[in-house]
Amino acid sequence: MVKIAIAGGSGQVAREVIDALVVAGKHDIAILSRNASTNEIIPPGVHWRAVDYSDKNGLTEALRGTHTVLSFVQLLTDPTNLSQRNLIDASIAAGVKRFAPSEYGSARTVDMPWSAGKEETRNYLRKVNENGKVLEFTLFQPGLFLDYLASPHQTAKYVAPLDTLFDFNNRRAILVEGHEDAIITFTSVADLAAVVAQAVDFEAGEWPEVSGIRGNRMTFSQVVDIGEKIRGPFTIDKVKLKDLEAGVLRTSWGLATKHRAVTEEQASDLFKTVLTGILLSSVKGAWDISDELNHMFPHYKFEEMEAFLTKAWDGKP
């Protein structure tokens, strides 16, 4: 049994991973949070620990004896990236062996300003190790959550539905003209949580710097084909690459469901930014996820998109 610290542990993705770690039954799990919760029921072997991410010394003391730190710090609430830098510094000072920053999405951050903090953290982790490894780290990257294609229906225990450019509910999608074969990866929330839990237990060597988790690697056209097979004909909006690069988004519809970390004031601008960014970044390969953990755990069977969504949409109007 080793000690695992979960930073930002009250978040939706974090809670999915915590449950998967609890099922393994091998670890002492500390949920680090700015406000330690006393109202939620947590399973045996899990406890809350209140921390101040601006207090590096306090973080160091909180991490003493910890083997692995998994960060789920919400980037939108940490715009200066100070919380994760302090968490990395404290992990090194406390003698933590392994660290995973807040990732859980795309392979690259090109054209996605809301993910800029990920790139800063990646570079910082490389910098602290440039004169010799002091902290083993990996970037868990599953692409988009397959569960989002069931929106507005919730298929995960904690992760809430979010809109994407594939709207199965209203049978429509947005594609970049001439780039219908751009690659996008979808992995279910359950698969992400299960594979991260296996990676935490991995003892046969060091973590790879990138831990790609490839549930379903598809072209945009293939996703639409599956959508039409399950839901019927889709209406397709096609946007021009040059318009997107100019910041112009000409579509008949847009995103409407905001993440809980987004304020009402941020939402309208962010909807356009996110939709434009995902379309642009997909053309540039940002969502073509590698498969390091597929190879590390070859016997793990990922949920296939068509089967997952057929079940999710069964009986839905």
From TrEMBL:
| TM regions (residue ranges) | none
Quote the InterPro entries the UniProt record gives: NAD(P)-bd_dom_sf, NmrA-like, NmrA/Isoflavone_reductase-like
What are the record keywords, sorted?
NADP, Oxidoreductase
* Keyword Thylakoid listed: no
Q: Write one Gene Ontology MF term.
A: oxidoreductase activity
Q: Which residues form a coiled coil?
A: none
Domain of life, per lineage: Eukaryota
Question: What SUPFAM superfamilies would the database entry show?
Answer: NAD(P)-binding Rossmann-fold domains (SSF51735)
According to the record, the signal peptide region is none
- Give the NmrA-like domain ranges: 3-230
Q: Which family does it belong to?
A: Belongs to the NmrA-type oxidoreductase family. Isoflavone reductase subfamily.
According to UniProt, the name of this protein is: NmrA-like domain-containing protein
Please name the source species.
Podospora didyma
